[in-house]
Design goal:
Distance between the termini: 32 Å
Radius of gyration: 21 Å
CATH class of the largest domain: Alpha Beta
Number of helices: 19
Oligomer: single chain
Structural class: alpha/beta
Strand order of the largest sheet: 2-3-4-5-6-7-8-9
CATH architecture of the largest domain: Alpha-Beta Barrel
Strand content: 5-15%
């Protein structure tokens, strides 16, 4: 069994927006050791290996193994709090890794397998001959990203209660997900139950001239699709040049149009710099300026500004030129207090940080402290990484060290903060009554089917994105250098 089939995955998989990060030797060895321990522990308690891997004790075994690897290299800013007995005792594993939180994933993705994009971008067909993520069993590997797979991975194979379906940056004719297919998926989810489980973004490219066309598209999206937020990429541009949120010719007209339409949640990709595009608009310097100018707009910062070539440490205003610190400094420079109108989202960010608990402790600690405990949102970027369940279980057990709490004034990241991050914060910004949704979700057909499914679960433990630099380069070539 390879590391991708471990119940908790620390691997090199990318969401397609950044080059895969090689797994350090110590963690490669930890993955191999975890695989052996899964076999040994399954034998010890007398169950099949597959059953053990699919259970909570399998996840506990894997996390405990990672703890040992992190300790061996002195990476002790945080850790996964898993008692030794959880590797064998289901009750102990249940106490550590299970939960009944309202989990609202505000960043998820899928693809329309037979969409117009496959005709307008035939270069993409080249990758289908080598696409390694065809392991989901479909004859057409792109079907691994379909609505049906999306629903299973997000709503059955994870504890996710509710989600937002988002988009990648591309014009409508090239986008791998159309508004029509996104709406169909929302209807599929709605047909499964009475709970309100799926919300939609609308992808807007304000710097794709002419601006008037983009503003009309916003009007059409608001009128036709019942969207809950806008999604934008300030890095993206038709000639590789992005834009700023407070650009008077692009950003300001876009935000003003969003306000006039009454949809004031704006989700902005920041960080995770796209190869072949200018990094000028990657950082968050414009976020605070826009938030100060438009206090009635919610600015939801996807990835929280994380950059893969910058290891996160403690915040200092004189060392805030890269990564998450650019978000914090932008807020401070513009007088945006914690728990104001700027939100930090964790899609891909948490999964990347799972490999580095010290950087994870700094990042989560900083965001809770400076952006605010009520303004950090759960997102996973799934299904690019397969089911988000491993990210959920790892986050449930993560603990910021007492030393870091004392040195840097970080919160303990206890149950109260995790419950907020997992769903209550997202529910507030999207106007959701979390308790009612959770109650309905337990009783609707999805909840009942899921309860039956969990009697004998069969998750794939697969990841779908590119895992090597070669795969990523081929994907970039097939997309003509664009991140769509």
């Amino acid at each position: 069994m390879t590391d991708e089939r471990l119940p908790i995955k620390i691997d090199s998989t990318s969401n397609g927006e950044y080059r895969p990060l090689p797994v350090p030797k110590l963690l490669r060895l930890a993955n191999e050791l975890a695989a052996r321990r899964l076999t040994d522990n399954a034998r010890r308690i007398g169950v099949s290996r597959r059953s053990f891997v699919n259970g909570l004790c399998g996840a506990a075994t894997t996390l405990a193994t990672f703890n040992g690897a992190f300790a061996a290299r002195g990476n002790l800013g945080g850790r996964f709090q898993v008692p030794a007995e959880a590797a064998f005792d289901t009750a102990a594993a249940q106490d550590s890794l299970a939960g009944e939180e309202f989990i609202f994933d505000v960043q998820t993705h899928m693809i329309e397998p037979n969409g117009l994009w496959r005709q307008t971008n035939p270069r993409f067909e080249r990758i289908l001959r080598w696409w390694p993520q065809g392991a989901c069993g479909e004859s057409d590997p792109v079907d691994c990203y379909s609505a049906e797979h999306y629903i299973r991975e997000v709503f059955y194979d994870s504890d996710t209660t509710m989600a937002v379906l988002s988009f990648v940056p591309a014009p409508p004719d090239r986008n791998p997900l159309s508004m029509a297919e996104a709406s169909r998926t929302r209807d599929l989810v709605a047909a499964l139950g009475q709970g309100r489980r799926l919300l939609l973004h609308a992808m807007i490219l304000p710097n794709l001239a002419p601006l008037e066309v983009q503003l009309r598209r916003m009007e059409q999206a608001a009128a036709n699709w019942k969207i809950a937020a806008w999604k934008v990429y300030t890095q993206w541009g038709p000639r590789g040049v992005g834009w700023a949120l407070d650009d008077p010719d692009v950003g300001i007209p876009f935000i003003e149009k969003a306000r006039s339409l009454g949809i004031r949640n704006i989700c902005i990709h920041k960080g995770l710099t796209f190869p072949r595009l200018s990094p000028k608009f990657t950082d968050c310097a414009d976020v605070g300026r826009a938030a100060r100018r438009f206090p009635d707009v919610n600015f939801i910062i996807y990835h929280s500004g994380l950059e893969t070539d910058t290891r996160e440490g403690a915040y200092h205003p004189d060392r805030a030129g890269r990564g998450v610190n650019t978000l914090i400094k932008s807020l401070a420079d513009n007088g945006i207090a914690p728990n104001s109108n700027v939100y930090a989202e964790l899609g891909s960010t948490w999964r990347i940080l799972m490999r580095d608990p010290t950087a994870a402790a700094h990042t989560l600690g900083k965001l809770l402290k400076y952006v605010g405990e009520d303004r950090v949102l759960w997102g996973t970027d799934s299904i690019w990484y397969g089911s988000p369940q491993d990210q959920i279980q790892a986050f449930r057990t993560f603990h910021i060290s007492e030393r870091f709490q004392e040195q840097h004034g970080y919160a303990a990241l206890g149950a109260a903060q995790k419950t907020k991050v997992f769903g209550l914060n997202g529910a507030a910004v999207y106007g959701i009554e979390a308790g009612a949704i959770k109650k309905k979700a337990l009783l609707d057909p999805v909840g009942r089917d899921k309860a039956a499914y969990l009697e004998k679960p069969s998750p794939g433990h697969l990841t779908y994105g590119p895992r090597t630099d070669y795969e990523f380069s081929l994907l970039q070539d097939a997309r003509g250098g664009w991140p769509d």
